[in-house]
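Standup notes
- HV: blocked on the assembly model, inputs below
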Amino acid sequence: MGKTIAEKILGYHAGGEVKAGDFVLAKADLMMGNDGSLPLVFEASRRIREFGVRSPEKTIMVLDHYCPSPSKEVSRLQEEIRDFAREYDCLLYDCGEGICHRLLPENGHVLPGMLVVGADSHTVTYGALNLFATGVGSTDLAVAMNWGMLWFRVPETIRLQIDGNLPRGVFAKDIALYIVGSMGSSGAASHAIEFRGSAIDEMDVEGRLTLCNMMVETGAKAAIMPFDEMTDCWLKPLKIQGDHEPVKADDDAHYEREIAYDISGLEPQIAFPHEVDNVQPISSTRGVRIDMAFLGTCTNGGPEDFKTAARILRERRVHPGVRFIVSPASRKVVEEALADGSYQTLIESGAMINPPGCGPCVGAHGGIPADHTNVLSTANRNFLGRMGNREANIYLCSPATLAASVVRGEITDPREFLA
Amino acid sequence: MGVAHTFGDDINTDYIIASSRKRDTVDPQKLARYLMEDIRPGFGLQVKKGDFLVAGRNFGCGSAMEIAPLVVMAAGIRAVIAKSYARSFYRNAINLGLLVLEADTDSIDEGDLLEIDHSGFIHDVTKGERIQARPFPPLIKDILDAGGIIPYMERKYPRSSP
Ligand code: SF4
């Protein structure tokens, strides 16, 4: 019987043939932790006798959640992470470099065919580059750092066939919200998702990163894109040393379910408070006033997102009732946005720009909403209290919808701005 | 033998241990007395070493922090028996060596005396019934028998011989 991409990658790393439902020990190619998760990973590591880091070159630590540090307690934790990285010789991206899920793809750490584990649920993002990446717990990461492997249940795969031409003003984020809305928050629980279809063929890696990032909101364990010219063209400028092996599913692979979407008629989508799967098309979203808007996160803090927002905001002003906060996903994003002018455009329009990092996404700092206010955000989660205040309402959308909405001061269809 | 304490479906990790308690300490031993505080005040102080948590579907849903299974273990719970589990709770429990049995729990009532044996049966001593728990895949059984993923790996792959 043929194999899915997940079966192939896990089998290769477990050293044998595997099929969905098997439990295996598999070698990880890369391990990632950030300042949100590493303190607990260190605690778990203390339960391992003679703990050490087996492959420092495969162990990456990123300070991104609380940057720059908002308190002396966080500063102390970040110092511990720096000390640990120094002691074991791990690669560290310090405060200001950017969000883990942007930095790893951007710097060529995650490559086709790899098995990657991260102590962060949005680790699934890397599947955009044709690999198996999944979020794990703190004991899991400590075990993987010490032994280079950990256990997996080989997941069943759901195939998502996405066909059609993306209409003007509609983006990968809208497809992601639409899928989460229609599958529900546990629609792909513990499954791998494999993407294919004409809309995927046309989508660049930036869009694919956004789409894979959000698949964890359906409960998926991994979300995997095909390898094609888009992948190749994204990887080329990175000048990757060392080999990597694209993985293709067999024609007779077994899928637990196949779901097809045609996105030709898709409208911009909005996730309403307080669940990511509470999704409505923009045409049924009337008169939602916004008090704060947030462009950024590992979902939509990339250079294309800046460009799209800037296209709409050029020679326009942020509505006086809106605090518009921007967090670039990485330093490279800032450099690109400065070079193409979108950074300047955002500032001229009235945006406040944070340093690269997660920013207000998890409510640590950098823009915590007030009670009884509405926030429109390009993030991936709108749970109650997510941005640090349980009395605020969070709506999710694409960068284009966000930009149009900050101009009007209410949730606005971007298509009228993108003629 | 231990006493069954029964709960319903969708017991989330915030019910298991409230976030407000985690603000002061993350020491499972200190948190054990607050087990299930929000849905059953005082429970953490009544529960005895060797008792069982019995629940319905989707036990341990919500945030994936390992503190939830750690607090259950620190309270002395011998095993959790539920119809099904949230993935992250299940994975964390296996990693930490907390016995998480999957079985039809409808017939078990609050206060029943339970016993579990090595062939995966749950004996309801009060009712004189026997319930078959879903068997563990071999790898998971080995991890649980070792007392969690760390002791399992330490035994299987001593650091010196990768
Ligand atoms: S941007 Fe938000 S979702 Fe992404 S890693 Fe940071 S905190 Fe998590």
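- HV (later): unblocked. Residues A 65, 99, 101, 120, 122, 297-298, 358, 361-362, 379-380 surround iron/sulfur cluster (CB under 6 Å). The first strand of chain A starts at residue 23 and ends at 27.
- Next: hand off to the docking folks.
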